[in-house]
Amino acid sequence: MSKVKFNFLIALTVILALSSFNNDNASRLQNGSIQQHYDLPNPLKAEVIGIQDGDTIELKFLFAGKKAGQRMGKPIRIRLLHVNCPERGRPYYKVAKQYTSQQCFRKTVQIRHAGNFDRYGRLLGEVVLPNGRILNKELVKAGLAVHFKKYSKSQEYSNLEIQAKKQKLGIWSQSPTFFGQL
């Protein structure tokens, strides 16, 4: 066999192997664990595969629509509406993150949303847990999040915060100087 024919057969084998590999990955994306979507159903229903912090989760759902921005081709992140949990390094940060994890990690949840995204490419929404409760509200009730008045005018969340304050739950058991740190 000539050297040219041998090199041609090697190149052809490599091309076919790479083509097969790419087709396998594409079919895995479409038929396997995570399928890419260009529309956002409402409610969006998917498994929680990551907990970023107390008020941000990641779903087993790839969104490739125009609003995906920097999150294009990555699992969609949800920023919980109406609430704000303590930031990393602050008291109750770990407690809020753990609570969120216990409530929804590896569970299928529904996200009620209006199709709005924040500047980080996170979908803004309320997380409906498998038992029908709303994670956002449960965090405020437990004193692990505040009503995020800068972005929410909800009277219901305001009332939940007032009740948690009265009961001195979670963050509300801290000194008044703590609240400027959220």
Automatic annotation (TrEMBL):
Keyword Lipoprotein part of the UniProt annotation: no
Ranges where the TNase-like domain occurs: 42-174
Keywords: Endonuclease, Hydrolase, Nuclease, Signal
Domain of life: Bacteria
Protein name: Thermonuclease family protein
Pfam family, one: SNase
GO MF: endonuclease activity; hydrolase activity
Record-linked InterPro entries: SNase_OB-fold_sf, Staphylococal_nuclease_OB-fold
Species of the source: Dyadobacter fanqingshengii
PANTHER family with a match to the protein in the record: EBNA2 BINDING PROTEIN P100, SERINE_THREONINE-PROTEIN KINASE 31
Signal sequence residues: 1-26
